[in-house]
Each structure stands twice: as C-alpha cells, then as structure tokens.
Automatic annotation (TrEMBL):
The lineage of its organism: Bacteria, Bacillati, Bacillota, Clostridia, Eubacteriales. It comes from the Bacteria. InterPro entries: DUF951. This is DUF951 domain-containing protein.
Length: 59
C-alpha cells in the first residue's frame, strides 16, 4: 500500500476520542500518526495499520 507523509488515513475503527482520521507524520517499518481531533501521536507497526485503513486522502 502506498502511504506517504502528509496523507490523511481514514481508519475502520475510531480513536478513543471518537475521531477516525489520522495524519501520517512518518513512514517506514512503523507509521507515526497524529489524531486530527485530539492531537495525540502514536507509532504502530506498518502491518497493523495497513489492515485497518478504509481510505487514503492525499494531502
């Protein structure tokens, strides 16, 4: 899957704050994402994120 920095990922599941859109800050073996509602940053393995992507909005 072709995910680039500054893309917005719409996920299948919501963040605990209720938002399901995340900004991509870094790519590689892990993704660093920022929640667009609360601003929390998280790093998770690429394989886990790619399974949960519903849509990619190019930014």
């Amino acid at each position: 899957m072709d995910v680039q920095v500054n893309d917005v990922l719409v996920m299948k599941k919501n963040h605990p704050c209720g938002e399901n859109r995340f900004l991509v800050l870094r790519t590689g073996m892990d993704f660093k994402l920022r929640c667009l509602k609360c601003g929390r940053e998280l790093m998770t393995p690429r394989s886990k994120i790619e399974r949960h992507i519903k849509k990619i909005e190019r930014g």
